[in-house]
Amino acid sequence: MHNNIELYIQALNSANCGIIITDNLQPDNPIVYCNKAFENISGYSYDEIIGHNCRFLQSQDRSQPERQYIKEAISEGKDCRVEIRNYKKNGDLFWNELFISPVKNDDGIITHFIGVQNDITDRKRAEHELREEKSSVERKIQERTKELIESESFLSSIIQTVRESLLVLDANYKVLSVNNHFLSSFKVTKEDTVGKNLFELGNHQWDIDTLRELLMKILPTNNPVIDYEVEHNFPYIGKKVMLVNAYRIEFEGQYKDRILIAIEDITEKKEIDRRKDDFLSIASHELKTPLTTIKGLVQLLQRMKPDGASEKYNETLDKVSVYVDRLNILISDLLDTSKIQSGNIELHLEPFDIDKTIRDTVDNLSVSAPSHTIELSGTTNATILGDELQISQVINNLISNAIKYSPDSNKVDVYINRVGNFVKVSVTDYGMGISSQDKAKIFERFYRAKHIQKKFPGLGIGLYISHEIIANHKGTLWVESEVGEGSTFSFTLPIMKNQ
Ligand code: ADP
């Protein structure tokens, strides 16, 4: 028997969980046994433990609800399991998973309690971290939702204030919302619009095949509709020109696959542009007529030079002729611009030898611009079907610009070659170059880079005309440039078939 007890005690001592036995028949229920593991968990030695009530493990942390629970279980003589904060001898907190079970004698009186304890601090910490993490995720979600709601109301206030008509459609082109500007500019009510199909609005003004096609491509391809002009006799507001832009929109977590349509009334702007163009075309016409007469008269004077006219007289007359020519070119450019603008530019298509055209143009310019050497290299031996005069005007523009915008250099390179069924002509200068913002705009009508406005004369139309001329010949004109290093303007032209 004695041996058996030794055996049991050894078993208890080798257990991983702390085990204590208290004697309930003695006052204050003292501990009468504890195993090795309990010493380890608590940090107290056997001698320091025996005789104490278990509460010493709680140190000063006495307000935990679990204590009450244990008390009740003990007084009622029931099993109980709690997780409770306890403290080691050195003051360190440990979480104790505690099982208490009463031992009764034959008369049903509780003589002992057995307490089994596990240090679950690590598990508790992991649980705690998990809880923290969860609540931080929840917090983030709440914040994000708040942000979304705020940005939505921020957006909707912008949408209501902008001076552009906006419509939001679902994937079936049904109008989901409109802004006030739309309602006031088209003189319609919300009821007329929201919930209706875009193509059935008003008198079907938006039901245009090409617009419908473009809009249908937005969702599958994400390609926006940019600057599509609709000219129409609208109900209530009459004949107007509207500029339509449309984009696919997505609002994170709320919806995707919607279409935002922005409509701008450009009727007045078009009208002003038209008047400006009319003015330009009339003014240049009116200027051209007397100038042609002046040119003729100067030629007459040159031919009827009085005998013994001084050198000075001749020089002056020649200068007048040169300036009249310059004015003539300027006015012709202006006339060309208005012709291009109204789509009235005529192409006189004839086959011509492009190498020769370029050589002639370069030779002419070399004489009039002694400051720069224009070096021509390459050959194409190609025939172009096109308007030779216009092509020579383009080369002229490019080389003149190359000279004008490289005052500190003395060289312009012109290079021609064949690329596939095209000829390619490049004009390179080593001058000021063009910034990337300007690059995007220099082919527009009347555009001139800001910093050069005062220093160099010009109207900002040469490149516009050149670009249009090359486009009319089914070629392309483009520029590559680095600020401070120079620019290369290149264009291509299709070589005539059977070449
Ligand atoms: P203009 O020379 O009369 O201003 P253009 O249409 O020929 O008009 O050119 C438009 C603008 O492009 C110029 O004002 C200038 O800013 C820029 N540009 C054109 N050619 C060059 C070049 N070779 N180097 C630098 N800038 C250029």
UniProtKB/TrEMBL annotation:
UniProt keyword annotations, A-Z: ATP-binding, Kinase, Membrane, Nucleotide-binding, Phosphoprotein, Transferase, Transmembrane, Transmembrane helix, Two-component regulatory system
Domain of life where this protein originates: Bacteria
Annotated InterPro entries: BphY/WalK/GraS-like (IPR050351), HATPase_C_sf (IPR036890), HATPase_dom (IPR003594), His_kinase_dom (IPR005467), HisK_dim/P_dom (IPR003661), HisK_dim/P_sf (IPR036097), PAC (IPR001610), PAS (IPR000014)
Catalysed reactions, semicolon-separated: ATP + protein L-histidine = ADP + protein N-phospho-L-histidine
A Pfam family the protein falls into: PAS_9
Gene Ontology terms: cellular component: membrane
GO biological process: osmosensory signaling via phosphorelay pathway
Span of domain Histidine kinase: 282-497
Primary localization class, coarse: membrane
Name the record gives this protein: histidine kinase
Native source species: Chryseobacterium taeanense
